[in-house]
Amino acid sequence: MLELRLVQGSILKKVLESIKDLVNDANFDFSSSGLTLQSMDSSHIALVALLLKSEGFEHYRCDRNTSMGMNLGNMSKMLKCAGNDDILTIKGDDVSDTVTFMFTSDLVREIFFYKIADFEMKLMDIDNEHLGIPEAEYHAIVKMPSAEFARICKVLASIGDTGDIGTANIVLRQNTTVDKPEDATVIEMNEPVSMTFALRYMNTFTKATPLSNTVTISLSPDLPVVVKYKIAEMGYVRFYLTPKMEEDEPGPRA
Length: 254
Fold this sequence. Notes:
This protein is an auxiliary protein of DNA polymerase delta and is involved in the control of eukaryotic DNA replication by increasing the polymerase's processivity during elongation of the leading strand. The protein is α+β, with helices and mostly antiparallel strands.
């Protein structure tokens, strides 16, 4: 038996919006500790890893480890039927080939649960191999406002991903003299790093901006860059992107 209730159902809506253009189908893995997802894009250049801890849900019941394959585009369409303030309940079991999404209004929560939407979605059989992602020591770690990172990626992408139009340079300096901690830019650098990435992927990652006020970017030579958006105290969504090799076409750096 699987049953979980998320008071802020909009969190899952935002998660789906941030990853559905990168991954079409994926397995959602449920265990007693929470919900996880790991999947690569079709080109095997980028990987997304999601964690939503069980303690972040108002109610979380998972009798045994369960994996549910879902089409993220269809799931996103279904979640759009829920209001931003609706409570989301997900139900499933071991014998059914469907999963149920229930949306309830929070406005009448103190009196009774008023069901406003109830959907069933067909599950998929997805062959998805989990990759072991070892912990690594990164040469440089940048923590900055997520909206500013999205703006930078958008500006660089306007020049073009191949450099045909021209080149652009944006210098990011550490800035901690701000009123709000989330507005600070903090750079931890053990060694200088110079890497090149495909901006179309970086722009896709920034669709997770509504999930967090800040983003953490970890870089080290010969390792994928890690772009992490923390989801309150509940978990995170991480994007891993393989750097362009020297023989690849040059383009604006991110």
